[in-house]
Structure formats: structure tokens, C-alpha cells
Design goal:
Shape: globular
Order of helices and strands: EHEEHEEHEEH
Number of helices: 4
Number of strands: 7
Largest sheet: 7 strands, mixed
Structural class: alpha+beta
Radius of gyration: 16 Å
Length: about 160
Amino acid sequence: MKSFDINIHIERYSMEELSADDSQLVEQACRNTSRSYAPYSRFHVGAALKLADGTIVDGANQENASFPVGTCAERSAFFFAQAQYPDAAPVAIAIAAETGGHFTPQPVAPCGMCRQALLEAETRYGQPIRVLLYGTEGVYVVPNIASLLPLVFDGSALELED
């Protein structure tokens, strides 16, 4: 048997330590939590997706009584961006969550489906998407989506060997 470790590089910043651009993106994600429709979980998530041309696309989770029908904030922003700006690569995404009228102390990471959808964008555009995860106790900055999804499943897994 062989074993190995998978390490993920994450930096933690206070809001004051972030660059002006990163701070603006995080603040937009925080504002977008108010656009969330979450009457069942009361867990409001906002996202702000920055494109290579500087455009920022908003996202917020949208729940439904039939739970699988809803969508997460990250995918709502990403799919809107792909439909409206298909040639603009996403370069960064900020995510914030609040519940009970308060932002979460610790950052909340994207779910597996969102990670997979955003990983596809990294593959499609051939460049990383920086991830900024907001919590009142600090902001995690992750260099790319692939770091959040070790042992990735991508199109290479679908290629058959001859």
C-alpha cells in the first residue's frame, strides 16, 4: 500500500488586509445575501463573480419547496455569466452566507455541485478562478477551484484509451 497527502493552500485575511478589488468583490457578495430566497433553510448565500473584463455578476441562492429545484448562489452567478458573457472568463468569486440575521463567523465553502460547475469553467478557459470565502472572523482566499476539489473529475476522465 502507498499513501499520500493532499494539501490545500489557503490564506486568511481580515477585510482590512484585502486589496481594494478583493474587498469590493466580498462586499458585493455580502450585499447579495439580501437577494437570496431561502424561506425553508433561512440560510442566505450571496456570490459575486468577477469576469476577466472586469464585469461583476451577482448571485444569490434560490430555494424551492421541492428542494432539488433550487440553485446555489455560486451557480446562479456562474450560469448567468455564461449566458450573458460567454467569452469572458471568470477570474474570481466571492461567497458570503448569513443566517439568523448575522453573517457566519467562519467562511462557508461552495457545495460539491458548485465546485464541479466552477471547475468546468477553469478547464474551459484554461485559467484559475480565485475564491474568496467571507466570514466575520476572516476571509479565506483560495488560489483556484481545483484546490477545493482535490482528485478532480473532469473531461479527461471521459476519454477512452485506445
